């Protein structure tokens, strides 16, 4: 998994590159005012912001942190997915996270960033590891669960908040992770013979 045995096949490398380029272009074009999650504007009918906000960032540092997340997930779990599954996941988890913030986090008035949906993708990958009996799957899942529990207990990191020029929306991490679990349900239906042929 680590070392020189990286998932360099076009099928594995193209999806994270496309996601990264989209996020970089949206940042470079300075489309935050048009695309960010803005509760008041969404309530006035700008519903696209629920999804589009997931792919834009407050500043280049914020984007850089999420690009590192994309790279980390690619190294760990690229071989678990296909191009169509990757893009299905980032769209479904983007919608899930945006709708979750809208419904359950009324105090969040403005939101941007990939981190919520990235938490969903890495949770799905950890559960796929468990399904395929990868020895690191349980450790990764427990590590993410511990991180989420600590965030909910300790609150958002002020240091990271200063770097990204925004409060860290730890609620989005939890919402995204729950979305990853929901996406993984078919894996375990299959594992336990519950899926229909």
Report on this model:
The protein has 197 residues and is mostly helical. It has ten helices and two strands, in the order ααβααααβαααα. The chain has helices at 10-28, 32-35, 39-43, 49-52, 60-77, 83-104, 115-131, 136-154, 158-164, 170-191; strands at residues 37-38, 110-111. A two-stranded antiparallel sheet has the order 1-2. Helix 1 runs antiparallel to helix 5, helix 5 runs parallel beside helix 7 and helix 6 crosses helix 7.
What is the number of beta strands? Answer: 2
The helix tally amounts to 10
How much helix, percentage-wise, in residues? 55-70%
Largest sheet: 2 strands, antiparallel
Précis, in short:
With 197 residues, the protein is mainly α.
How does the SSE layout of this entry go?
Blueprint: H1 10-28, H2 32-35, E1 37-38, H3 39-43, H4 49-52, H5 60-77, H6 83-104, E2 110-111, H7 115-131, H8 136-154, H9 158-164, H10 170-191
Helix pairs in contact: 1-5, 5-7, 6-7, 6-10, 7-8, 7-10
Features:
197 residues, mainly alpha, two-stranded antiparallel ribbon
